[in-house]
User: What shape does this take?
Amino acid sequence: MSFLRRMRVTAVVAAATIAGCHHQGFNPIKFPSHQALYDASLSELKKHKWDHAIAGFEKLTTDLPARDPLLPTAYYFLGEAHMGKHEYILAAQSYSRVAENFPEDTLADRSTYKTGLAYRKLWRRPSLDPEYGETARSTFQSFLAAYPDSPLRDSAQAQLDQLDEWFGTKGYNNGVTYYKRKAYDSGIIYFRDVVKQYPKTDAARKAQIRLVQSYRAIKYKEDMAETCGTLEQRYPTDKDVLKACRGVKPTLVADSSTKPPVAAKAPQGAPLPNPPAPIAPTSATPAPAQVPAVPPPDTKTPPRP
Assistant: This one.
């Protein structure tokens, strides 16, 4: 037998041996009952043996009858195992099955919350595609509407506030790129959208300051005065606001900061301008407000009989 052939045979035998050891260590089909498999899978989850836990809970979700009280818990812990392995899409899918199929279950609120967390982890920073961030945002909004008395409500609101800050930052940065190109009308549309959609964020404050600077550049004195009136009312001691509005006689008009000027108004139903390509490094945007750290995979939820 040639050396190369012997090496191939050795590799195959080694792989088979490893696989056999793996199944000997944890083999979901060897357990005599669903409860025994559930208990063993939960034990593997607590040890952070994610693959073992996934194998066990996946089998349970396949084998358990639709009305078995272990089924929603099995889906929940399957999501926990995927979260531990950083498989966030699979985790979100597992968590969502609880609320969708068992809306009255005691784990429904926690599973919905964890679904939002999983999607939020997939949007890693504001400059990236916000698709998963949008899904996370809608999930947290649904959670707050469906479970107003949940003990996780404050944490969900904090996550939602952080997402709003990121969305506001994304829109603000797009507007700044147009502003630096002196495409003021396009920048104004972005800045106004940030103020309207995310009014409680710091990005909204910065967007209104940029609006003042844009109006000054294109000599929209009335809009500049109205925006300064709103800024000075909301941020009376802010140094950036005072600097931007220096020499401007402010005018207070209801909702003036969300009413676009005629020259910058987009056609009815038209989308925002395409996000511009970056042209130069800009000053770093302050990080969004910190929120409570995402808790580790939950292994303490007591199983139900």
Remarks:
- The first helix runs from residue 3 to 25.
- The radius of gyration is 27 Å.
- The domain at 31-151 is CATH 1.25.40.10 (Serine Threonine Protein Phosphatase 5, Tetratricopeptide repeat).
- Residues 1-23, 256-269, 279-294 have pLDDT under 50 and may be disordered.
